[in-house]
Amino acid sequence: MIIGMTTRKIAISLPAEQVAAARQAVAEGRAASVSAYISDALARRDADEDLQEMLAEIYAQAGPPEDTDRAWARQVLGLDG
Questions:
Q1: 20 to 30 Å CA-CA from 76: which of 21, 63, 65, 70?
Q2: Are 1 and 39 in contact (CB under 8 A)?
Q3: How would residue 17 be classed by pLDDT, with cut points 50, 70 and 90?
């Protein structure tokens, strides 16, 4: 949660599986509350969208990575094998 932000209470409908997952995260201490779990998920979605926009700009300027670039990155990150 962002410190100093104004919060609003809303009502939403979610599939039972998502509610169960949020409650389980709270029970396991991975989230302070169901609201915090959902807020964190929305923040991650915003960050993902920002990253997609940034990548689209990079690809527009420099083109997408080539297969050799991807292979190098996989090796450096230890994803091969």
A1: 63
A2: yes
A3: very high
